[in-house]
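Q: Focus on the chain.
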Amino acid sequence: MAGMFKNMFGGSQPSGSAKLEDDFADFVKAPEPSPASIIAAVSSGVPASSTPGVSAVPYTKWYRVWERTSPKDFLQEAMVMPFILLIVVFHLWGTRKNRRKAREWAQAHAPSLQNEFAVVGFNGIQKSEEEAAAVLASPDSILKEKTPQEFVTYATGRQNVAFVDVAIKLPKRYNPITYWMDITFGFLFESWTSPTETYEAIAYTFDGKEKDVVPVPAKDTSSLKVNNSAYDGFIWAVVHKNHMRQFRQDRYDASMTFTKENQKLPSWVTVMTESAEITDTLLTPELIQAVEKAGDNFKYLIVTDQPVDKPLKIEETVPRKRVHICLSLPSSASGYTSSVPLFDQFLRLADRLVAVAHFRAEVMRKVRHAREEEIKKLRRADEEEKAEERKLAAEKIKKEERERLLRGMNAEEQRKFLERERERGQKRSMKKYTKRG
């Protein structure tokens, strides 16, 4: 009994080694497992270092790329590289060709711009004859590359013309996918525009607003003295018949004119005007000869005061007088000899407008009537839009008031209210049905 309490509450005495049975002798004698050396495993995959005490790792062929690879490992790259090189070569060729085309245009037209304007290009006023001669020696300096397919230039400093903007538009030769897709789709589908080489020039006339546009030197207190450059606003165009349909579809101002043949012009050219008297006044022998000489490179020449895009607001109908010409680029630089005379006529057309474009009251009354009709349509559409907005606002207020009343009612009152609404709706429907009958 005492031994039992001693074992329960007393300290335990160190016991001797337990007696093992013969069946477990083999397991007891087995050696205990030891952890594997991690350092040795890691060091085998790391190259030899200069740290003392660490053994050097052998330099195997894993580090010699030329021994563990072969050309067949780069088969996919070998298949892709020719296409990449082809695209790069095509891009360089297309970019250089577009720049060469723009440079040829500048070489042909820079003398005309220099003769007519005080400032040509984006470098400011040429203060000396040497600077002007440098522009003629390097005409591509007047150009600015907006994109690889579009080049622009600018000219100002002339009587009757505020400034001239020129844009040279070329195909996307630098992108072979887009370039060939445009050519293919343009050949297959009439609605798809084929890539073309054209240049457009727009001359914005002063129209008697020199005092609002031309800056006066700070020390000069006298008012600006200029001739009256105002002329009547109208729309008149000479168009190549191959481009007449697209011209009328693309331009809102062209849709306001009627087409009329003129015996003085070649058979492949027509006139689009608002009055025959305007044609008789503007169609000079020099202009007719220049159009004939330009040939198929000529697209259109238009004198207008209306926007190109159809106006959606009354503010957009404000007249802005300008002269616009569009021609195709010839295939070679020598082809510009036939189109430069027409470009010269375009630059001087503003002078003729100021001199002779003052027509009889009957002619201008007809021209103004067409513009007033368009303004009435816009005003009517604007009033209908405002009436619709007022109607929607009133319905919104009425709906909010109805919801406010319903929130303040209990279930029985809401039921009666909705029932009265339904009865009123039925009565209105019956009245409409009776009136129709």
